[in-house]
Amino acid sequence: MTLTTAEMAQLLAGDVHGDTTATLTGFATAAEAKPGDLTFAEKEEFFIAAENSAATAIIAGKDAVSTKKVVIRVANPRVAFAKALAIFFPEPKFAAGIHPSAVIAPSAHVDATAHVGPHCVVGERATLGANVVLQSGNAVGADSTLGEETNLFPNVTVYPRTQIGKRVRIHAGAAIGPDGFGYVLDGGFHRKVPQIGNVVIGDDVEIGANVTIDRGALGSTVIGKGTKIDNLVQIGHNVQIGEHCIVISQVGIAGSTKLGHYVILAGQAGLGGHLTIGNQVTVGAQSGVMSNIPDGGKWLGAPAQPDKDFKRQVIALRYLPDLLKKVATWEKKLGMGAEE
Q1: Which domains does the chain have, with CATH numbers?
Q2: H or E stretch covering 37
Q3: If 41 and its partner were Cys, which of 46, 59, 227, 257 is the partner (CB 3.0–4.6 Å)?
Q4: How far apart are CA 257 and CA 253, in angstroms?
Q5: What is this structure's pTM?
Q6: pLDDT value of residue 98
Q7: pLDDT at position 186, please?
Q8: pLDDT in tens, 286-322
């Protein structure tokens, strides 16, 4: 693809400082850029590196000026960066049709524009909407629905009665709707509690590789629209995640916990069951949440607590060795033995 800097600026809702006719043919980091490339600089140190690179033009903030390079100035360089990458590296297109090795139940409905790749299985009464993509090795259970432009990467399994919205992306190896982990002790044995609910996923959700989202024991496990889930996340039965949340790798959420909107769970955070997490809450990496959290807080630690409290404790711990030495000195002066 070849665009002028003026054309790129229009696509990014920006303006050009410098040559509006310079041609752009690719996107690269400052260290790897060559003539014709567009690069990106959000901070001053990166802008200096970009100016000294071989790139033709730089995406930068509204006040950026350069005597060496063309600058495409935008309100938010990081947003423009994401848009520019999508322009130069568009998603692959999948031709409509069903591969001969796919197995489609007679009662399933597959839109004529859908792509069903090799070795896929679509169960009874399942529905694949317009431009849905099953890349390969996908299993879609009976009575499931996939909304338009949803894309399943290889080897995703969708259990029966799962409801998936529009423009959802689910990466390789994810399992949507297996049994929740429910057992009751009966006469010394763990008796399985049947998990008869399902999973409901809103529009514009992205789910990473090898994520597991358990179906509800009764009712639904719900993932709100716009939420993004990183790789290797475990979401228990009847969890409800609000809209536009970020759930980072190796997070575990126990059953029936409810998250509000715009919640961020950092890597390896663990949430206990039957909790309520408010809107716009951030939980730090490796935190263990064992109680409800109100709206808007940032919590850290295990057990998790408000970040200011946690930071005070960390700072206090730094003084503990010196404090113990002082205590030992005073004990010696006072003639207090270790046994006392």
Answers
A1: 3-88 (3.40.1390.10), 156-303 (2.160.10.10)
A2: strand 37-40
A3: 46
A4: 7
A5: 0.91
A6: 98
A7: 97
A8: 999 999 999 999 999 999 999 999 888 888 888 888 8
Hey, what long-range contacts does 53-60 have (CB within 8 A, 24 or more apart)?
55/28, 55/30, 56/5, 56/22, 56/23, 56/24, 57/5, 57/8, 57/18, 57/22, 57/24, 59/12, 59/14, 59/84
Residue recorded with tokens 């960390």: 314
pLDDT value at position 331?
Answer: 86
% of the chain surpassing 90 pLDDT: 90
- Name the catalytic one among 237, 244, 261, 274: 237
pLDDT at 174 over 70: yes
Find the DSSP H helices in 161-306.
none
Q: Report pLDDT for 333.
A: 86
* Residue 337, pLDDT above cutoff 80: no
CA-CA distance, 78 to 280, in Å (whole number)? Answer: 21
Catalytic, 274? Answer: no
CA 32/CA 28 separation, integer angstroms: 6
Determine the Cα–Cα distance for residues 261 and 238; give it in Å rounded to an integer. Answer: 17
CB-based contact 70:56 (threshold 8 Å): yes
- Rounded to whole angstroms, how far apart are CA atoms 131 and 115? 7
Is the distance from CB of 304 to CB of 281 less than 8 angstroms?
Answer: no
